[in-house]
Every structure is written in structure tokens, then in C-alpha cells.
What we know:
It is a single chain. By secondary structure, this protein is mainly α. The protein contains seven helices and three strands. It has one domain. The longest helix has 39 residues, at 189-227. The mean pLDDT is 92.
Amino acid sequence: MFFHPMDFLIIIAFAISLWAQFKVKGNFKKWSEVSAYSGRTGAEVARSILDQNGLSHIPVEPVPGTLSDHYDPVSKVVRLSEPVYYGASIASVSVAAHEVGHAVQHKQSYGALVFRHRMFPLVNLTSGVAPFLLMGGLLLQQFQLIGVGIVLFSFAVLFQLVTLPVEFNASSRAKRYLLTEGFIRNDEERGVNKVLNAAALTYVAAALISLLELLKFVMIFFQGQREE
């Protein structure tokens, strides 16, 4: 009843997202079995890069799980999954350097990261309300509700779009750190690219899904306005 032509594109984007997640896991597993030239663990690489960038006060901690790595800007701590923290593979050093890239972004007040942090409280609120307004508007054929839902949902979409340069920049920094500090050789850069590019694709797919969903509701809204 509520199928819209845009749904076909959303399904394709969702399939891309699933494929991206498959690629992330596959590349991480593959390059986790290839030792990095330096023999340094992810924890050692993270610690060294942090210290080189004047962030010796930021701790590096292991956390359970796989691909649970992240930089916590509130607690100011780099948390690495156990395979990354203790591993000395291409995958381990790549992910560790990427997360440290976020810490350096925070220190340097990287524009996109600052904007994303400022948006987060608002997005946290609007993303919980928007789906109810959008679905309620569709069910009740109340296009005013859909309009408000679109405005609120737009913040979530903008948040995901802003996330893209943040992630791409962190990966770019990671590659530079790994090469300049001698943690990898030039011929190992291919593995680093495979790991980080696959992870970046998941963010691209998520942003694409959200953007297409937003466009779908915008089209429904304007179609409803014309019919009224």
C-alpha cells in the first residue's frame, strides 16, 4: 500500500550496505592474518602516534568484541577491540591508526568533527521522534505531520553526511602516520587501503540509505500537497 518508486533504490542501497559489512569483515579477517613489517601491535602503534601528536594523556584501552574500536571524545580515550589491541597485523595497525586519527582531529578541532559533536544532542532527540511523525503522517494521511517529520529527519541525514569527511580524513591520517612512522612498508599500503576503504564504504552506504529515505518522504509530501 505504501510502496513508493524510491523504495526500489532504497533496497539497492540496503543491499550495498550488507555487501559493505561483508567486505569489512572479510578484509579484516584476511589482513588480520598478515603480519605488519614493524611487528608492533595495534596498542603500540596507537600509543606511539598519540605521543607523537602531543596526546600522551589519552589512554589506549582494550574492549571486548570484534570491530568495536572507537575514539570516545567525552572520556578522551582510544578503545581498541582485543584483536586490534593485541594483534600485530596489517588490519590491527590500520584500525588502530584510524581511531587515533579521530583523537588528533579532536585535538586540532577538525571542522567536520566539531560540527558533528555539536549536532549530536539534537540528532539524538530528533532521530527518535521523526520516524513516528513520518509513519503517523502516512497512516493518517496528515501531510503536515510528514512535513515536520521531514525537517527532523533531515538533521539525522545531515549528521550522516558530515560523518563521511570525518571518516575519510581519519583514514587519510592513518595511512600517513603508518608510512611516515615506519609501521608499514610501501608495499603493505595496499592491505591498509583494503581494510580502511571497506570500512568507509559502510558509512557511505548508510548515508545513501538515509538520503534516499528522506527524498522519498519529500516526494510523498509534495505529491500530497498537490492532491490537496
